[in-house]
Design brief:
Oligomer: single chain
GO molecular function: DNA binding; DNA-binding transcription factor activity
Keywords: DNA-binding, Transcription, Transcription regulation
CATH architecture: Orthogonal Bundle
InterPro entries: ArsR-like_HTH, HTH_ArsR_DNA-bd_dom, Metal_resp_trans_reg, WH-like_DNA-bd_sf, WH_DNA-bd_sf
Distance between the termini: 27 Å
Largest sheet: 3 strands, antiparallel
Protein name: Helix-turn-helix domain-containing protein
Radius of gyration: 16 Å
Strand order of the largest sheet: 1-3-2
Domain HTH arsR-type: 13-86
CATH topology: Arc Repressor Mutant, subunit A
Length: 108
């Protein structure tokens, strides 16, 4: 995800997803530690799995993380998450450009 290609709605979704300290910690953990499965990530972040799932869902909907379901050697399904490549160049100009594409644009 590159910011110059973000629509206004995509920018709002990404910023909303990153506006929570738990989600920032999730992105940081995945960025520094690499891909990880939910149970291990929950232990590392000291957060419940259900709450982590909610945060991961929000990050995935924003295109900031991706997931892949894999089977372990003992047959357990593990959902692995990793950061998606993204860069958000937040400047007055990129905001002005993004505003023009908002679907809920009160200026129009």
């Amino acid at each position: 995800m590159k910011s110059k290609h973000l629509t206004g709605d995509q920018l709002l979704t990404a910023l909303s997803a990153l506006s929570n300290p738990h989600r920032l910690r999730v992105v940081a953990a995945l960025a520094t530690g690499g891909r990880n499965y939910v149970s291990q990530l929950a232990r590392e972040l000291n957060i419940s799995r259900p709450l982590l799932h909610l945060h991961l869902q929000k990050l995935e909907e924003a295109g900031l993380v991706t997931s892949q379901l894999e089977l372990s050697d003992d047959g357990k399904a593990l959902n692995y998450f990793e950061t998606a490549p993204f860069a958000i160049d937040l400047t007055p100009a990129t905001i002005a450009q993004a505003v023009q594409t908002l679907t809920n644009n009160p200026e129009k």
